[in-house]
Amino acid sequence: MLLRRFASTSTLPPTIRQLLSSPQPTSPETKVQLSGWIKSVRRQKNVTFAVINDGSCASGLQAVLKPDATPHNLTNGASVRICGNLVQSLGRGQLYELHVEAVDVLGECNPEAYPIQKQALPVEFLRDNAHLRARTDISAAMLRLRDSVLRSLHSYYEAQDFHYVHTPILTSNDCEGGGETFRVSPVSSSPSSGQSPDSSVQSEFFSKPAYLTVSSQLHLEALAASLSRVYTLSPCFRAERSQTNRHLAEFWMLEAEWAFIDHVGDVCHVVEETLKNILRCQSENALLWKDGDGTKLRSLEHASRPGVPWTRMSYTDAVKELQKYHASSRVGFEFEPAWGRALQSEHERWLSEQLVGGPVFVTDYPSSLKPFYMRANDDGQTVACFDLLVPFIGELVGGSLREERSSHLVEAIQRHGLKEEEYGWYVDLRKYGSTPHGGYGLGFERLISWMSGIENVRECIAMPRWAKRMLL
Ligand code: 4AD
């Protein structure tokens, strides 16, 4: 049997990407073995060409087979193990090809029934087939992009002496105070168990309500008070009902927090450095951007140019600019901009796409618009915070200095109508060796959307969840 011809080794056999990036000198005696899925088959009179990919890279590898050695069930989507010689290709478009000696079809795939056909498939169809979606070239490229972005993030933070830490998913508070938390309880204490509402708190698994985290920030602050510089990438959950192309109910947030920082501009600086470093490292662009008209890609390239600092402007100035435009333009905005009102998505996009033409940090929002933990500015009206707005996405990052003065913090907790007893531990951090500190949170799917040109964050995560949609 074919499989016996390949003696098992203690290490994993090379992937197609590994083979192609450092091909061994080949001779007719030098054989390679690889496994993957058939992406296309072209049967000709004297030869069969099949592209095989194991997902390790975008291109895959062309396999060349003799017609009489081509199994009838070698079809698009079938999984195979192939043995042959890797040789330089005379054909266009590839450096190497595999001259196949033996092929095993491990898993057949009926080409008539297989939902993942070669032609471009509608987005909705792929959402309905989320379990098969990763088999499309675009989705696989997006997943590899997530992976390479993460690796460059880790190496950037390592170089800055940040520690990668893990924070809880189950929490007792709503960090953002936005009321978008999912509450968690064991199945046995659900309303159908026949308990009265009063008895439900007593029967809570943790003796108090538990929620899925909306942000790791508060826990990160506790760890930054020991390790100085920490970051995490964590799933976050928000019972967000908006059906937009930038909101998910479950998304991943990169959050960093560090001690001994006095100016919100310094937090912006770290965010800018982090992002420029990532933008330089991306690898899957060619595939992901092929359908774009180039506008978004040019704006992204402009943003990643070293030595060109990103614009910063205060919320107050941003509102003035928005008002000027609203008053002078025939079209204006749907929502009238006014100091003290939240910036709407249309405002955010106008600021980054029209006014600035690139990423812009909007700083020092009114305290009434922001969560309780942000450090109060001396003007008594605003807080030391920022949102980073980027073209075609809007808000990508939110961050701030944190209120490190316990009396100010307690006052803010009260002003926001929060229960003091629930934040006792958080106030404690300010009682014992408090430090000026700050940090930020970056929506990972929005970053992938910005970097790839994929328009909706639902296509920037393998198995998206949003209101009324959780298929698997
Ligand atoms: O602005 P947000 O709500 O900030 C925080 O949660 C802070 N505690 C973070 C921190 O300072 N450590 O969220 C941060 C980012 C947003 O800028 C956005 O990119 C992303 O998280 N985000 C979402 N992404 C997808 N779907 C959602 N429903 C999102 N909500 C926020």
UniProtKB/TrEMBL annotation:
PROSITE patterns: AA_TRNA_LIGASE_II. Residues 181-201 are annotated as: Disordered. Its EC number is 6.1.1.22. The keyword Aminoacyl-tRNA synthetase applies. GO terms for cellular component: mitochondrion. It holds the Pfam family tRNA_anti-codon. The keyword Protein biosynthesis applies. Transmembrane segments: none annotated. InterPro entries: Aa-tRNA-synt_II, aa-tRNA-synth_II, aa-tRNA-synth_II/BPL/LPL, Asn-tRNA-ligase, Asp/Asn-tRNA-synth_IIb, NA-bd_OB-fold, NA-bd_OB_tRNA. Belongs to the class-II aminoacyl-tRNA synthetase family. Keywords: Aminoacyl-tRNA synthetase, ATP-binding, Ligase, Nucleotide-binding, Protein biosynthesis. Residues 143-464 form the Aminoacyl-transfer RNA synthetases class-II family profile domain. This is Asparagine--tRNA ligase, mitochondrial. Residues 184-201 have a biased composition (Low complexity). GO terms for molecular function: asparagine-tRNA ligase activity; ATP binding; nucleic acid binding. GO terms for biological process: asparaginyl-tRNA aminoacylation. It is an enzyme of class 6 (ligase).
